[in-house]
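Hi C.,

You asked whether I'd gotten around to modeling the 374-residue construct. I have! Everything is below, sequence then structure, no commentary in between.
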Amino acid sequence: MLTLYVHIPFCRQRCSYCDFYLVTKRDHIDAFFRALALETAARSEELKGRTISAIHFGGGTPSMVPVHYIAEWLEQVASLCSFNPDIEIALEANPEDLGGNALEALRSAGITRLSIGTQSFTSEKLRALGRPHTASDSREVTAAALRTFPSVSVDLICGVPTESLSLWQEDLDRALELKPHHLSVYMLSLEPKTQLSRMVRSGALRVPDDGVQAELYEGALEAIQLRGYLHYEVSNFALPGHHSRYNLASWERKPYLGFGPSAHSFLVSPEREIRTANVSSLARYLADPQRAEGFREELSGEERFTEEVFLSLRINRGVDVEFLRKGNKLGHRLSAAISRFSERGWIYEEGGALYLTGKGFLFADLIAGDLIFG
């Protein structure tokens, strides 16, 4: 099985906290999809004979482009390979793009899962984040999507400027009342080159400190899990059968192909593992989409081991202690590290494997790094 990712780089605006590759001008949408078709045709051998289990349209904001482009690309790919009978075709969307008959058009084009960038269901937080939609839009669009699609995910951000525990609880309650199939909960991070980061550094804005962020996150864990959601990854919660197939396959280190500017691919064979990335420039991509690759590396044995530990902890599928002991450089210090994290209530051992606790998810990368490198 293979999964596919398509990076559609167009957005109406760049949000203050966003550091993804995107462009805010829409005059190249048609040229982009012509280039995407050329890249896909040039890579037909990578698709030939393969069965696709999931496709994810990310960005950018895929929901802002005319839906016929999405449908035409799906038809092209279907002519080059096979789709699993229950394939999941997911698309990221913003509420402001989903009025009129947009939901029905996306469903007719073959989209089976909608991931809505609501970010919040409260007016205060949406204003603080500079989002163009309202709290009413978040509620109405999510409710309409749940009537239209077999699987719907909503994004929430916690830790925004001036956020309190009570406001976060109100936000969570409003989201959970709608019963979406999936929730992605992200703690606001200050990416170095973003407007938000510059404003915080200058003192123009303040965000909750790490202790408050941890309190917000732990509050979310309890509230969401009480509603029957499985916490299957650091930031992701799903009702049974509604995890993101593309994301989970990526975290499980299964092969995937990425199309479009800045998209990554992971190529796996018995002998080697290779990661590639397309150029992070729309202009360069449009100039030569048939040779869009801008980066390629073959992973060493140590890099493969490191990824396995980091990602296994991130999705909490358990890290075998003996596997960890054979591959790391800590020697006898590994047992001391395991004891230290266990005493803090961050990990527990069961059946010879290590798992994160709910609180441990907050420190997943720190724990993984310490277990590997000390």
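If it helps when you're writing up: The first helix runs from residue 29 to 42.

Thanks,
B.
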